[in-house]
Amino acid sequence: MKFRAVITDSVHMRELLNVVTIFSRINKNLIINIQPAKVIIQIETEVEASQCLWCEIDAGEQGRSSQGYFSEYVMDGVDKEHNQIYLAVVAAHMVRALSYVRNNAVDYLKFKLVKQDRPCLAVEFSGTSHNDSDIMCPKLQHDIPVTIAPRSEWRNFELPFDTVYDLTMLLPTVKSLRGLLDKKKNISPSVTIYATLAGELSLVVETDIVTVASHYRGLKCSRARPPDEEDSEAEPLTEAACKVDAKKLATLFESVNFCDMKMIANIKNDHLFNVKFEIKNNVFINFILPAVDFE
Length: 295
What we know:
Layout: E1 2-7, H1 10-26, E2 29-34, E3 38-43, E4 52-58, E5 72-76, E6 85-90, H2 91-98, E7 108-115, E8 119-126, E9 129-130, E10 135-136, E11 139-145, E12 147-148, E13 167-170, H3 174-184, E14 190-196, E15 201-206, E16 211-216, E17 221-223, E18 239-245, H4 246-255, E19 262-268, E20 272-280, E21 283-290
Antiparallel strand pairs: 1-5, 1-7, 2-3, 2-6, 3-4, 4-21, 6-12, 7-8, 8-11, 9-10, 13-17, 13-19, 14-15, 14-18, 15-16, 19-20, 20-21
Helix pairs in contact: 1-2, 1-4, 3-4
């Protein structure tokens, strides 16, 4: 197995730090899935639990600064038939290793899978610093211990890429939603999200004493593309709703802080709520929460 990747764009470096920091607030462990065409960073959780959070980074177009995320990207998986690598890593260790890029100029950020006493993900930086008499180019390296997941465990980390939703909607600003969700999580453990084809979005919390609803109108909404095998005689939905854990959803919106991103919600009626943060054309975060019932 082999893995080597280099990032030379300082904006991309800080975005990666942002992603790992967000994920560390949701779960203490991360899974890094390395594939020939992309890298997926996800929280470690059982697939059966239905809650998923992952960031997908396109590894294509290396060396083209206007398109590629990585200036260099090389990997060899377990074998030709199973050309992937799954690494388990402590999220806090990744945050600590990457935090240098937050306030320092860095020429490159390099990742490499190495073997010492145990497998490690080496994170290397090189930057330029000035003092009164010298120009220095220090090189720093963190060796983060990782666990390489055997193929027998890969199914535990498979993501629901083929999920079919009923409605998809372009969401309002993250600042607006963050404030509402922060208030609603203190009223009820769950929040119900309603969307209609007419472009209406409602966030509703209910208790034995009060029902509080917030409404948005004029949002862009459409039916999600149905699968080929869907029953053609079934009447398509014009509205969809899902009740989810209010604190989990609020925690995500409290953590997300990217400039110029687009947010898209997908709802599978009474089953799943998905929000997709499109950070760049080649980078996005997906968060899926299952329907809950706290009654």
